From TrEMBL:
GO terms for molecular function: 1-acylglycerol-3-phosphate O-acyltransferase activity. Keywords: Acyltransferase, Lipid biosynthesis, Lipid metabolism, Transferase. Its EC number is 2.3.1.51. Residues 63-182 form the Phospholipid/glycerol acyltransferase domain. Pathway: Lipid metabolism. Pfam families: Acyltransferase. It is an enzyme of class 2 (transferase). This is 1-Acylglycerol-3-phosphate O-acyltransferase. CDD domains: LPLAT_AGPAT-like. GO terms for biological process: phosphatidic acid biosynthetic process. The gene is plsC.
């Protein structure tokens, strides 16, 4: 946790310099390196990672990345291993302030912050993200479960946000990802962290967005759930 916090503190001014003096691409590179560093910090606990992506996913189309959600440790590997797709997040507004590096990136890196108590604001921001990735050929990461699963068991997908992204990014590919063992890092709460865990990410075959949003949503959920094998019994 000490090294994790130090990474956030060190990269905060680096992000500021990259964003304000050198522009978007420099800032994006600093964010990718930050998240690689955060992953390396967890090696102290014996944590290892694997990210299996057997598909040649194009970089000239927008993506809607749809993973299950188990802990905050889901996020750095997605940012690092999917960095060429410029991942942006749908995140709760509370994360947009008070956290070095993280809050700065969420506010300035293209992600959107939603107020869970204000559905109108949330839908407006998600729609804006959809139009953004459609225009710039980047990717949106949304966790359709809404909140993380503390036991690893997948929760039912909530349809509204994902459908809104598809509506506003009609040329996107939906990319389902199954995450395993991330929940074990925080199974005791924020402290102590779990040790000796192997966190795995399995990218499934992308799905074309069609006018039948319900079918696309069901297929994405089926693929994600099929790959989740690690949970608390």
């Amino acid at each position: 946790m000490i090294f994790f916090g130090l990474c956030l503190l060190v990269f905060h001014p680096i992000q500021w310099i990259c964003f304000n003096l050198f522009g978007y691409n420099a800032h994006r590179a600093s964010v990718a390196l930050l998240n690689l560093s955060l992953m390396r910090c967890t090696h102290i606990l014996g944590t290892t990672y694997s990210f299996k992506n057997p598909y040649n996913i194009p970089t000239d189309r927008p993506l809607i990345i749809v993973p299950n959600h188990q802990s905050m440790h889901d996020i750095p590997p997605i940012i690092w291993f999917m960095r060429k797709h410029h991942p942006k997040f749908v995140s709760k507004k509370e994360l947009g302030r008070g956290i070095p590096s993280v809050s700065y990136n969420l506010r300035h890196g293209g992600s959107v912050l939603i107020d869970r108590k204000d559905s109108r604001q949330s839908l407006t921001e998600i729609a804006k993200l959809g139009r953004y990735i459609e225009k710039h050929k980047r990717s949106a990461v949304i966790f359709p479960e809404g909140t993380r699963s503390r036991t690893g068991h997948p929760k039912p997908f909530k349809a509204t946000g994902l459908k809104l992204l598809m509506k506003n990014a009609p040329s996107a590919l939906v990319v389902p990802i199954s995450i395993n063992n991330s929940w074990k890092m925080l199974k005791y709460g924020k402290f102590p962290n779990g040790i000796g865990n192997h966190i795995s990410f399995q990218v499934h075959e992308p799905i074309e967005v069609t006018s039948d949003f319900d079918s696309v949503l069901a297929e994405a959920e089926r693929k994600v759930v099929s790959g989740v094998t690690s949970f608390k019994s």
